[in-house]
User: Fold these one by one.
Assistant:
Number 1:
Amino acid sequence: MKIDWAALGSVFGVSLVVTVALVGLFTMGVVGLARQEAAVARGGSAAPARIGAYACFALCAAAVAYGIFLIVA
């Protein structure tokens, strides 16, 4: 049995980058929701923060759905 170390390193690198990006995107969504609550408490408009948070969560869901599609297909 021969291990292709270059391919293994490539898979590791891509999965590390995608994981960090996905966690960062989800974190930005949570921060957006927190800013929405702060804006409502101050009496301001919460629409931009809410839209940004929902966009981040939608992108996270799309990335997870694409990953599942790659596994199943």
Number 2:
Amino acid sequence: MGGIPLPGALGERARDILAGRVEPVPARDAATVVILREGSGAAEVYLLRRKSSMAFAAGAYVFPGGSVDPRDTDQAIAWSGPSPAAWGEIFRADEKTARGLVCAAVRETFEESGVLLAGLSAESVVADTTGEDWEADRLALIDRTLSFAEFLGRRGLVLRADLLRPWAHWITPEVESRRFDTRFFVAALPPGQRTRDVGGEADQVVWVRPADALARAAEGQIFLMPPTHRTLGELAAYEKVTDVLATEREIVTFMPKIAEVDGEMRIVLDDDYRFGGA
């Protein structure tokens, strides 16, 4: 049977939402970035495993990402590539929201992987972010004592929006108490940079081919949320990072629904997709 069962209190909450007795929690704007690198035989993606103590997606292997910080909409930054208005058209968002999404994508990627999609000019990208001074800034971004605009301005960096490509749009099901309106981006690992186990919300990181990640999920070795599972399935069709980046994507919004199936409350997406192994 397709879908994800909603047992106990979660199932009752789903019934209450469908009946109009409970209002769903609003979804917060968020951004996720699939970092890619060339591997042996196929492109590889960077995944991190969320700590079991996390309130959302505990233990799941995910791409770097997170919520938009209100300060991410700050206009006082150097910007290279498609404008916020252009990103807004792609993701069907207003210009301010789009600016925040792109800034959140770059900021969260740096916070959670050490990869920074920015450079000293519109044509360059920083080559190494592993020094102690970079680490201090990364931690300050995480605890929000440093805004992204302040970080870029202090270092004289230009945000490289042109290194990102749009990929997908997912909204957390209404039954969840923590909901996100997430735009997915893809980006290549910049030359000279390397990811590292940066801790924080993750307790393990891995570079893996999309097909291998799906195989591990099917065998129960790792846990993937439906958006991650589906994205990996899409990326498994490509051999080269350049092929992924060259893909023209029509951004379709997915929000798994809650429904009663044979007397049981479940989360379902569509008729041809099953969450088994996801």
Number 3:
Amino acid sequence: MRIGEIARRSGVSVRALRYYEEQGLLVPGRSPGGQREYTEDAVQRVRAIQQLYAAGLPSRRVAELLPCMDTDTTTDHQRAMLRAERDRIRAQIDELTATLARLDELVDAADRRG
């Protein structure tokens, strides 16, 4: 499929897809005319990239973790990275949960005062 089709199906911009290609995160084939051609698997890969970015990972870390999604095997280093990122995200969730609880208290107090 062409770049516009994968952009539409994965919910990202063409510009983002080109950036992923520049970063080595997404490698399309090329048609005889030089146009990018993507496989069906590319849609899921782009969604995975988006999830990793949404979790706050930089391009370098995304590039290191993507192979874990492509194969059923991982290295000790990759497993350590996955655990570290999971722990980092859990800590963010805990902080956000505490912030939400504090905001709930403030809203309740403000509502009682009228």
